Amino acid sequence: MYLAGYMFLIFPLMNYARYTSNEPFDPIYVFYQTPFIFWIVLGAIWTQENLESKIKGYSFLSILPITFSELVISKFGVVLMALLAYEGFQWSTLSLFSTPPEYVPMIRSYLILFGGICLIISGLFYLAIFKLGFLRMSKFVFILWILLFISPLPIREFFAPKFNLEIMDIIRSAASLNWILVTVVSLIIYGGLMQATIKLSSSPRF
């Protein structure tokens, strides 16, 4: 739901002028687009777990022939697939709308970095939710979700001016990291969080 809303409604509305004007390409757009990865993935986690909590979904699943490890793997797998769908969509727009070649590697590296960050935060969320229960974690998950989503505004208005930085400086610095290393490290940490969640070896406490 979140991903479809972003792809077919929010993204076209936010980028209509960029793709229909003759103005020079401005890569700063990626700075404002990236938080949607948190809105999509973390928002889906919060919504799904909130629903599971309300309808006692885990109680129902406990009577089915599904192991705890299979449940955890499915949850982590859905997050990974959502993230890959978001990244694939963003990368495809770079090709569809004639992004200048010199900007493509930088934008892709920037997207990969924040995709990795989102993946790790998602893994931490699920570990905490399965260990402590959604009711204990719901407010924290919701607040962090909102803060990450609106993060470009305080960064632009307060932090960047304080450190005498331009938005392009932030993008270049983030994109300068080796995207292969970022991908490998993110997946290793995410896999470790999944294994740590599986080792809880009991149904989540809700």
Q: Which structural class do the helices and strands define?
A: mainly alpha
What is the terminal-to-terminal distance?
25 Å
Tell me the Rg in angstroms. Answer: 19 Å
Any low-confidence stretches, pLDDT <50, length ≥5? Answer: none
Strand/helix succession: HHHHHHHHHH
- Roughly how much helix do the residues carry, as a percent range? over 70%
Task: Let me know the largest β-sheet.
Answer: none
Number of spatially distinct domains: 1
Q: What is the 3D shape? A: elongated
Mean pLDDT: 87
Tell me how many strands there are.
0
Strand content: under 5%
Query: How many DSSP helices?
Result: 10
Give a verbal description of the structure.
It contains ten helices and no strands. It has helices at 2-20, 29-33, 36-55, 57-61, 68-96, 104-132, 134-149, 152-162, 167-175, 179-198. By secondary structure, it is an all-alpha fold.
Summary, kept brief:
This protein is mainly α. 79% of the residues lie in helices and 0% in strands.
Task: Record keyword descriptors for this entry.
single chain; mainly alpha; elongated
Helices and strands in order:
Blueprint: H1 2-20, H2 29-33, H3 36-55, H4 57-61, H5 68-96, H6 104-132, H7 134-149, H8 152-162, H9 167-175, H10 179-198
